[in-house]
Amino acid sequence: VVNTGACLNIRAEPAADATVLACAADGVLLRDTGETRESGGETWLHVITPSGVEGWASALYLER
Predict the structure, then answer these.
(1) H-run or E-run covering 61
(2) Which of 27, 39, 49, 59 is found 20 to 30 A from 14 (Cα to Cα)?
(3) How far apart are CA 61 and CA 55, in angstroms?
(4) Measuring CA to CA, how many Å separate 60 from each of 8, 63?
(5) Cβ within 8 Å of residue 19, ≥6 positions away
(6) How far is CA 11 from the centre of its chain?
(7) Angle at CA 63, nearest 5°, toward 37 and 34?
(8) What average pLDDT score do residues 18-23 get?
């Protein structure tokens, strides 16, 4: 997770208005499941947090 200024919302669906399941701070390593989706002109990656929360995060704030 990079350049959020605070934390990156992990969402239930690949959309900016989807329910927030968790928030990952800058520097946190998320597991990338390899699944991506395009929604609202944005790329979303399916990720799993260190605590096991599974959801979607904007690729704008992730480095591979």
Answers:
(1) none
(2) 27
(3) 14
(4) 10, 8
(5) 11, 12, 13
(6) 7
(7) 40
(8) 97
Global pTM value: 0.92
Cα(52)–Cα(40) distance, integer angstroms: 26
33: pLDDT confidence band, cut at 50, 70 and 90?
A: very high
What is the per-residue pLDDT for 4? 84
In the chain, DSSP assigns E strands to 7-11, 20-25, 31-39, 42-48, 54-58
Confidence band for 1, pLDDT divided at 50, 70 and 90:
confident
SS3 31: strand
In the structure encoding, which two tokens stand for residue 64, read together?
């591979």
